[in-house]
Amino acid sequence: MKLSIGIVxxxxxxxxxxxxxxxxxxxxxxxxxxATIDPNVGVVPVPDERLEVLTTLSSSxxxxxxxxxFYDIAGLVKxxxxxxxxxxxxxxxIRECKAxxxxxxxxxxxxxxxxxxxxxxxRDLDIILTELIFKDLDTVTKRLEKCEKDVRTGDxxxxxxxxxxxxxxxxxxxGNLSKVFAHESIVKELSLLTAxxxxxxxxxxxxxxxLELKEKIAELGGQYLTMNLGLADDVSPIIVKAYEALHLIxxxxxxxxxxxxxxxxxxxKAPEAAGAIHTDFEHKFIRAEVVNYKKxxxxxxxxxxxxxxxxxxxxxxxxVEDGDVMVIRHG
Length: 331
Fold this sequence. Notes:
Number of domains: 2
Largest sheet: 6 strands, mixed
Oligomer: single chain
Strand order of the largest sheet: 2-4-1-5-6-7
Distance between the termini: 22 Å
Helix content: 25-40%
Radius of gyration: 23 Å
CATH topology of the largest domain: Rossmann fold
């Protein structure tokens, strides 16, 4: 599974600083709006200490972690949905991301220009949400017009899609996110920005964060982290938080050639996990040999775990757990 996350926010709130820390890449970090004109894309390994242990245990030639793609997007300003600033270019770049990290500036520093002239993270959050909502409204309205035409031809799918889109439109017009409709196929197809999981990174110290901001985020059903990006050198908690928000887990494979982590959704069954390795494996799945990571390490190896009876044979209905070490058998 490809996990991609868009980093968004107003100019000069710490987006590019975050991206630099995440990826250790040298991107432009400048004290003026729109320093980042094209999206910078960085591939970041998911921290997982289990990989190193298994690599040693299996004497693997390679260790391949699960990865997250982070997209650092040009700063957002009021009116972006209708083309202000870098407008549609920004919004199009995050449409295919699985989740959005909103960076909100809580720290106060008169030497760093704020595009709105004052530091107010609650106001900034409202600006970002308004831009996402208006962009989605435009997308939904255009698609609804098409669906309504198709409804007149007797298309039953179009009728269902039109009903969903009307409900989404009403929600957006009320200033609400469309996340409650995220399971609907038409919403997935449109990749609505407000249907994505929102993770809020509050850039500053804990005492800089107003209670009103925390309450606003709670109302939105979002998750947040407080972190001073000017002092941080490890932002792996963001990756962990993204996994939590997107209900993702990792299962592992190990052998002489490689030890590797694979990303799947929590609740996925064994054939779906097999499909993460290769699409053909899902359809040709026969069974999986499974052992818990801790049990494998305790046993000292695959054969030892088998001798102790800790190795299990699981079929198509087995729900994979985080940290399962698996060998997939397929036709």
